[in-house]
Amino acid sequence: MHSWVDGQPADTVPLKDRGLAYGDGLFETIAVKAGQPVLLDRHLQRLDEGCRRLALTVDQALIRHELLAYAAALGDGVLKLILTRGDSLRGYGINPGAPARRILQGSPPATYPEAHGSSGVRLFPCATRLSEQPLLAGLKHLNRLEQVLARAEWQDADHAEGLMLDMSGRVIEGVFSNLFLVRDGQLLTADLSRCGVAGVMRAELLSRAEALGIVTTVADISLAQLQQADEVFVCNSVYGIWPVLGCGPMSWSAGPLTRKLQGIVRALLGV
Amino acid sequence: MHSWVDGQPADTVPLKDRGLAYGDGLFETIAVKAGQPVLLDRHLQRLDEGCRRLALTVDQALIRHELLAYAAALGDGVLKLILTRGDSLRGYGINPGAPARRILQGSPPATYPEAHGSSGVRLFPCATRLSEQPLLAGLKHLNRLEQVLARAEWQDADHAEGLMLDMSGRVIEGVFSNLFLVRDGQLLTADLSRCGVAGVMRAELLSRAEALGIVTTVADISLAQLQQADEVFVCNSVYGIWPVLGCGPMSWSAGPLTRKLQGIVRALLGV
After folding, report:
1. Is A107 within 8 Å of chain B by CB?
2. B145 vs A11, A132, A143: nearest CB
3. Distance from CA of A95 to the nearest CA of B (A)
4. Which family would the database say this protein is a member of (chains A, B) (predicted)?
5. What number is the ipTM of this complex?
6. Is 70 exceeded by the pLDDT of residue B89?
7. pLDDT at A89
């Protein structure tokens, strides 16, 4: 399906776009099922928070309208929205109030092996660490060189994802996923106030778990805590949940809480 | 003058470009004087180092050839080169060995007030800190949201540049400049192994100072050291050198070593 730029079919952006020049923008990767964007409100909520923190000017109602229209035309697949701060000739200075450029791109449904969800995956222990920047932490912004470097650390098919720590050695997330630990029936996921991407599926799972009466904690996580977990899983808004079987010398098995949450997420994503 | 993409006149890049998607690339901003790119070898050297560290595949001879041809046509102005990792459908994974996309953009000579160089400038004390990421430190990569946020902290014309510290409070650089201190006739500039951009003019000045027998040190710099400096100046490869008169409550005056180096740089830039 053709991409849209500011509501019009287009395949390119101007060379002056600040997304290209500085990674000055945000993105969302949204699962689309039967013409509907899944977890749309959560995606828009994160986008709104990002626009506020980066002082990007957008018409949220217009974005919602375009996402719904594009998803309806896409049917089933993945919708990527990029917002950039539009054009700039030279220099970092911004033009306050100038409307952000809206880019919508569609692609077919993701084609991860079914076994990732049913059997589980291994994580590559990435040497690339996440730098700590509270001003950008949590946002899905366009400055993603750390993820590019981390993902380039392994090429084998034995690792479906990578584990990323921060500069202080705390366990943060996957390269394109958030990470959850289960211990004594409770859920634990990393505090993302210094680095990391606050995933939409992570937010949904935290909310669902709370509603189910499962104790959930958002806090710093050490490698020792990871090692001692009863269950570990990764999640994102496209593939849902993958149980984690191992990472380097550590190993776990897919347990009951992971399977329970997988059931919920599968219903959500229609997979 | 028309921009070039991979050697052909063009004004756009595909939406799938990884520079847009992830800031996955590098750039150089090069002064052009009488058809010649100034400090070309140093720009190419930094670019080469960046390509090596980001595993970007480029034909250095081809880039040099294009830069020389573009500069000759531009005459006087500023040439911006962006290298991106080309196109990508979805995901952070790279296609090793795929040639980088080469983007050349020309613009007229910079129009900073002449007084910035002759009288000096004030620096805005930016609250935005530089995060520490040794894997990216020193490179002029496309992940520049920290600079965008820092530059957005002031709008008044009283501040020509901003001062950026790292997360630990060390004095690092300007938003679009490097910073030098003079103390007892010696030069000091920040160690950029954790964060910051290793500017081409900074490298040239370090080399020139050494040739002149001026003791130069690259090390961590505290705010106290900055405050106690005899002279302070900022530099980049487009405007050359600006003496720094103050930053917040701190003040300095343009001194003899700053003026001496300004003379060298002016000859180099032909200004």
Report:
1. yes
2. A143
3. 9
4. Belongs to the class-IV pyridoxal-phosphate-dependent aminotransferase family.
5. 0.97
6. no
7. 64
On the question of pLDDT at A165 being above 80, the answer is: yes
Mapping DSSP onto H, E and C, the string for chain A reads: CCCEECCEECCEEECCEHHHHHCCEEEEEEEEECCEECCHHHHHHHHHHHHHHHCCECCHHHHHHHHHHHHHHHCCEEEEEEEECCECCCCCCCCCCCECEEEEEEECCCCCCHHHHHCCEEEEECCCCECCCCCCCECCECCCHHHHHHHCCCCCCCEEEEEEEECCCCEEEECCCEEEEEECCEEEEECCCCCCECCHHHHHHHHHHHHCCCCEEEECCCHHHHHCCCEEEEEECCCEEEEEEEECCEECCCCHHHHHHHHHHHHHHCC
Instruction: Spell out the domains of chain B, with CATH numbers in brackets.
Output: 4-107 (3.30.470.10), 114-269 (3.20.10.10)
Whether B164 and chain A come into contact, CB under 8 Å, resolves to no
pLDDT for residue A97 is more than 90: no
Predicted confidence (pLDDT) at residue A194 exceeds the cutoff of 70: yes
Q: Inspect the interface and report whether the beta carbons of A135 and B128 lie closer than 8 Å.
A: yes
| Mean of pLDDT values over B149-157 | 96
- Do A144 and B55 count as a contact with CB atoms less than 8 A apart? no
For residue A212, give how far its alpha carbon lies from the nearest alpha carbon of chain B (Å).
Answer: 33
Work out the mean pLDDT of chain B and round it to a whole number.
97
